[in-house]
Amino acid sequence: MALVAVANPKGGVGKSTLATNIAGYYASRGHAVALGDVDGQQSARWWLGERPQVARTIQLWEATPDWIGRPPRDVAHAVLDTPAGLQGWRLKDVLRKADRIVVPLQASVFDIFATRQFLDDLQALRIDTSAQIGIVGMRVDERTIAADKLRAFVDELGLPVLGFLRNTQNYVHLAAHGLTLFDIAPARVARDLEQWQPLCAWLDEA
Length: 206
Description:
- The chain is α/β, with parallel strands linked by helices.
- It has seven helices and nine strands.
- The strands form two sheets. The chain has a seven-stranded parallel sheet, with helices on both faces.
- Strand 4 (63-64) and strand 5 (67-68) form a beta hairpin.
- The chain is globular, with a radius of gyration of 16 Å.
């Protein structure tokens, strides 16, 4: 089983958006996939409840802020949405389970500052695991100075950048209906799907 965790210590950076769309991508590829949510807000779990029956199946992976159960036995891929402030034994527990850690990061000095220590902790804790780490720029306008600063920060880390996703209402509107970019006609979200290509290729390696 391939297990992907989406993690960042800062709230509001797009963890649930990434987690639900990663699950949607796996489902679109014909994989049996489950989605777990250990964030207290349970946004991903709510999203699953809104998912229409005609959409490709994404199973619920039972989890709470204090307990991560086993993913359903019949799934090949599992995605875990994690809370802000993930640290200590909870972070170690996620790292023990995950094959890949996706870290969403916005192009602001505050997000960069909050994420730097987390990434350092991940690198240190990863010594005892085989988990791979990748970064996704969220709500990024690549033409801005903020985007340039984000690139400069990421270049210092030596971690792969899996893409920069633009700020668009497509994610908001689709999430409200339990859907992802991968559930609708590609022509409607062609620009966004193009931005996802490097991340999808990285996920397919798991």
